[in-house]
UniProtKB/TrEMBL annotation:
Signal peptide: none annotated. This is Transcription antitermination protein NusB. The lineage of its organism: Bacteria, Pseudomonadati, Bdellovibrionota, Bdellovibrionia, Bdellovibrionales. Involved in transcription antitermination. Required for transcription of ribosomal RNA (rRNA) genes. Binds specifically to the boxA antiterminator sequence of the ribosomal RNA (rrn) operons. It comes from Bdellovibrio svalbardensis. PANTHER family: ANTITERMINATION NUSB DOMAIN-CONTAINING PROTEIN, N UTILIZATION SUBSTANCE PROTEIN B-RELATED. The gene is nusB. Transmembrane segments: none annotated. InterPro entries: NusB-like_sf, NusB_fam, NusB_RsmB_TIM44.
Amino acid sequence: MKTTARRQARELALQILFQTEFAPQISIQTFLSVFEHSLDPEVIHYADLLVTGVTQNKAAIDSKIQAASAHWKVERMATIDRNILRVAVFEMRLSSELIKENIAINEAVEIAKKYGTSDSASFVNGLLDQVGKGH
C-alpha cells in the first residue's frame, strides 16, 4: 500500500473516530460506506482496520496515552488530538502489523498539522514520544 493511501486511511479513520464520539449510534460501517465509491478499496480496508482496532482496544490505548501524559486527562484532550493519538498508539503498539514508532509519530504529527490546532502537532509529538519510551 502506498504511503499516500495509508495517509488517506489514517485521515479517514480520524474522521470516523471523531464522528463516532458525537454520534455513537451510527455504525462504523455506515460511515465507511459513505466513502466506498470515492476512495480506493485499500484505503477503506486500512481505515476499517484502524477504526475497529482503536474501538476494540480503546481502554488499553487510553491507558497508554494517560500513562504518558502527566498533565492531561485523556477525556479532557481535544477530540481531534485524542483520536490522532489513539490511531498512532494502535499502530505503534497493538496492530497485527506494527508500524515503526518514528513513522507512526511522523504521520500523526502531519495529520495533527492538517486537522488540529496550532498546538496539536507539538502536543501529539511530545505525547507519542513518551509512549514510544514506554510510558
